[in-house]
Each structure stands twice: as C-alpha cells, then as structure tokens.
Amino acid sequence: MRTARATSKPSARAARSTTKSTRTATGRTRPARCPDAGDARRGARTIPRAGSTFGRIFRVTTFGESHGGGVGCVVDGVPPRLRVTREELQFELDRRRPGQSRITTPRNEEDSCEILSGVGLDGVTLGTPVAVLVRNKDQRSQDYGEIAVAYRPSHADATYDMKYGVRAIAGGGRSSARETIGRVAAGAIAKKVLKEVAGTEILAYVSAVRDVKTTAVNHETMTMDDVESNIVRCPDESCAQKMIDAIDEVRVKGDSCGGVVTCVVRNPPRGLGAPAFDKLEADLAKAMLSLPATKGFEIGSGFDGTLQKGSEHNDEFFMDSEKGLRTRTNRSGGIQGGISNGEMIEMKIAFKPTSTITQAQNTVNRDGVETELKARGRHDPCVVPRAVPMVEAMVALTLVDHLMLQHAQCNLIDAGDLTELVQGNLPTLYDPEAIAAAAAASKAQMTTKDMSDAFSED
C-alpha cells in the first residue's frame, strides 16, 4: 500500500476510539462507527430498479463502471421502424468523449460504440430492446491506490461505503461521469424520435464558468455549429475565451471549477406532463440532478422570478395566425401547471467544481483516522464542456417518455390526430370554432363567454 501521498495524522478522536472494526470478505476494514448503515441494509426491502433505470415507457438502464470492462445501456420501448445508425450515436458520444482538449480530462478513450441488439441489418429498429456497449480501453487503476483507503472530499467514496459497505475503488465506479455514456447513447435515439414525430430540437451550451457569464446567446437562432465552434462549447465567442482562461487558471494549479449549462428545447410538443407529482418540470429537474456534479436547476425565470410582481411575470396570451394560442413572453420556460404549452422550454443546470483534484486536502480514511490526500489520476478541471451532450440526452429522454405517456393516455386519438396534437394544431375546448360546432350539434346556446365562466372557478 502506498503511503507517500496519504500520510496519517493521529487525532484525539481516533486515539480514544475503542470500537473494533470488522473485516469484509475482501479483507478490507469497514469503519466501525457506521454500524447503522449495515443495520439499515439488513432490514431494507428490495426496491425495484435500484437506481439504474430511467423512464416509464421509454426506459433506459445504464450499466458498467469507470474502470470495468465497459459501459453502456439497454433501451426498452424504442418505437419500431425508426431508422437509427451507429454513426448517429457515435456523433453524440464523440461530443462527450474525454481527451478532446486541454480543458478536459486527458484520459484517451475512443468511446467507439457497438449496437448489440434492437436494430436490424437495414438500420431500422425492431421494437425490441436496443443494447449499446462501449468498451473501456485506457484504464489506469494504479492511479487510485491512495483513495482505496482515504475518502476524496465531496466525492461519493464515503457515501458509497456508508450505503453498500463496498465500492469500486478505481475511478469511482458508478459515480464516475463515465456512466453517462449510456445516457448519451440512449439520448441520441430519443432525439431521433422527437425530431421524427414532433420536429423537436434540443440544444445546450455552456453559459457560465465561475464568474464568467454570457447573456448574448439568441436561443431562437443558435445552431449546433455555433455551440461546437470552440472547446468550451459557448456560442458567444466574446465570452468563450474568457471561460477557457478561467478553466486554465485552475487547471495549472491542480484545482477545478464549476459552471452552468443552459438548455433550450425548440418546437416542443404541447400537452406533455401531468398534474401534481408528474409535472414535466419536476421530471426534468430529476433528470438533470441525476447527472454527476449537478447542484442546481432552474426553469424559465427561475430564482430571478421571485424579484418580480405577478403583473410583471405573467406570460400574456395572444392568437398567432400560424400556431394558434401562444404567449408574448416566456418567463414560464415553456411549462405551465406542469404541462408544456408549446413555447420554447428553457432551463439552466449548475455543476459544482470537480471533486477530485491534485491539491492536498484533509480527509479521513476507512479506519476513521484523519489523513491528508493528494489524489492522482486524470480528471476534468471543469465538467461543463463535456456536460453539454449529457444535458441534451437527459432532456430528450424525459420528453420522449412523456410524449409516449401522452399517447398512451390518449390512445383513442388516431395516429393522424396525434400528429396534430403534438404540433399544437388540435382544436381544444376553448377553440371558438370547436365550441360553436359542439353547441350546434347539441342544439345548445352555450356561448364562448358561458364556456369561459364555466371553467373560471379555481
């Protein structure tokens, strides 16, 4: 065991401890002061899915550890007869691949994907589970000798031990951002479904690194090429270099920094989401905060909305000659009452600084002894440039799952009407022509005002 980088500092608390530690099956010592974690495990019931599956109809299960044989996903619920190519998946995986530039981890992985099932020889989905595998090829497990016994501050090392009593030492296992390969591969399929069915486009970009922020990005006109035009993935060129400089500043010191990713959904389907517990923004928040290193989520006006009055914040409606009912502003971020209204969905996700840094930090080892840790290995000085495709993928997975749930609930509507629904062209109860037709059919005299009054009670 290496000791040069993890030097123990005896503490009064450790010296007074008389509780005996226990040995695991692997011979490692389990901390004696966490017996309640083991008691909880022994008395816990089996929980379905156990945290590695996302979605209800369009269901994604990711697998693999950072330094294992490989990582990937199994996607259930992919519609049949959808053309999906390996190149489409690989394009998205290349965007999150390590070693892209000096401001990302130098780990050199090709991240070449294999589609193992669910897609026929003609490149068309079969309606059966789609399995995608990416093999790990550049592991350096020897870099993780110190963290085998010493917990990295703000990393998942300690909490994984508390929960499971065992963990994948090299690279952080499932807590590593390498787990997101499966999400990005599945998200590429979800993007394809949304584009084919509803013409929906999802684009994310880096909007802040530390205190460098951009507010000059036009969400209506920005393109993928704009986002990919520089290594930090900020389409505002005047801010991009400042962001790169901010990352370089901490990188050369063996430190790290955080930032913000903004994501927009253009031409989203209307009617996605449900009241109460399955609100669309609630599921988007869960999806975003399930990503590694995320610490905050905003949609629409977010926290800034608390500074406004209702008369300032409300999005007034108007009738658009082409798209029907619309809002003049979009402080709601495209979602009202938990349901998408067809306006652009806009959200921000905050990412903390990477927890594994090469600077010396105080910590505690598995034996409960305070020590100093200077981590080795290859790590991102800032995660946000590579987080962009991860965010897009999780947004796509959330939206396509809600789209399929909407179709399942409204299965009396035929396929043609579904297309009208997601594109916002289906007449609603509040449509004057629909009201007039219904009134004529029933020989009733209900007016638009009567109908409005009938639905005005809260």
From TrEMBL:
Q: Which GO terms describe its cellular component?
A: cytosol
What are the UniProt keywords, alphabetically? Amino-acid biosynthesis, Aromatic amino acid biosynthesis, Lyase
Which Gene3D superfamilies does the UniProt record give?
Chorismate synthase AroC
Q: Under which main EC class is this enzyme filed?
A: lyase
Pathway involvement of the protein, from the record? Metabolic intermediate biosynthesis; chorismate biosynthesis; chorismate from D-erythrose 4-phosphate and phosphoenolpyruvate: step 7/7
Q: What is its EC number?
A: 4.2.3.5
Annotated region described as Disordered, given as residue ranges: 1-48
Q: Which GO terms describe its biological process?
A: amino acid biosynthetic process; aromatic amino acid family biosynthetic process; chorismate biosynthetic process
- Name the catalysed reactions: 5-O-(1-carboxyvinyl)-3-phosphoshikimate = chorismate + phosphate
Feature: compositional bias, Low complexity: 11-29
- Report a single Gene Ontology molecular function: chorismate synthase activity
Q: To which protein family does this belong?
A: Belongs to the chorismate synthase family.
Q: What does this protein do?
A: Catalyzes the last common step of the biosynthesis of aromatic amino acids, produced via the shikimic acid pathway.
Could you identify this protein by its name?
Chorismate synthase
Q: Which organism is it from?
A: Ostreococcus lucimarinus (strain CCE9901)
